[in-house]
Amino acid sequence: MPIAMPTGVAMKIEEDKVIITGPKGKLERTFSPEMSITLDDKIINVTRPSDERQHRALHGLTRTLLDNMVKGVSEGFEKNLEIVGVGYRAEMSGQNLMLRIGFSHVVQVIPLTGVSIALDGQTKIKVLGIDKEKVGQMAAVIRAVHPPDHYKGKGIRYAGEVVRIKAGKTGKVGGGKK
Asked: What residues have CB less than 8 Å from 121, skipping those under 6 apart?
């Protein structure tokens, strides 16, 4: 499937390395030398040398990574997280995210380079950036500080994530030693 490049996005190919620049920034990545990447009239094509299993896998990976790079420099990527729990909240301290989530101390999260964190109120966190991989990694790091609890539902979760709440222990009826 060819990748159409939006206006304002430029691509440069140097042997195995591809550099894509756009209004949001610049991304570069090294690809397998077996894959052939060409740019014809603002359309990127990726071709493979054969139909071997390894080449088919590399073909799909290369195409998807290039598409993510083009989308990143033109539109950017965003992951949303929610904090659920009484008294749980987040605040910004410069570029760093400070989480108050039921621990005896405040947890400080330092963003990766090329990734920014924004807050919508005290319980909604947005992770923004042009590199899809880094945005996803940063969101996973924030969520890992306090993943959702399966008994009460408290913790940090992705927006729209469904957490199945388990039933707690039930007491025995009429049991016990005499």
From this structure: none
Domain with CATH 3.90.930.12 in the chain: 3-74, 77-158
CA distance 22 to 4: 14
Distance from C-alpha of 88 to C-alpha of 106, rounded to nearest angstrom = 11
Whether residue 141 is predicted with pLDDT greater than 70 in this model: the reply is yes
List phi, psi (to 5°) of 62.
-60, -45
pLDDT digits (tens, 9 = 90+) for 33-46: 888 888 888 888 88
E strand segments, 35-177: 36-40, 43-47, 77-84, 89-93, 96-100, 107-109, 115-120, 124-129, 155-158
Tokens of residue 88, six digits: 């749980």
Compute the CA torsion angle 52, 58, 64, 68 (nearest 10 deg).
-170
CATH class of the domain whose range is 3-74: alpha beta
Residue with the two structure tokens 């008294």: 87
Spelled out in words, what is the top-level CATH class assigned to the domain 77-158? alpha beta
Distance of alpha carbon 137 from alpha carbon 65, whole angstroms = 16
User: In what side-by-side order are the strands of the sheet with 43-47?
Assistant: 3-4, 43-47, 36-40
pLDDT in the model for residue 168: 81
Q: Residue 103: exposed, middle, or buried by beta-carbon count in 10 A (0-12, 13-18, 19+)? A: exposed
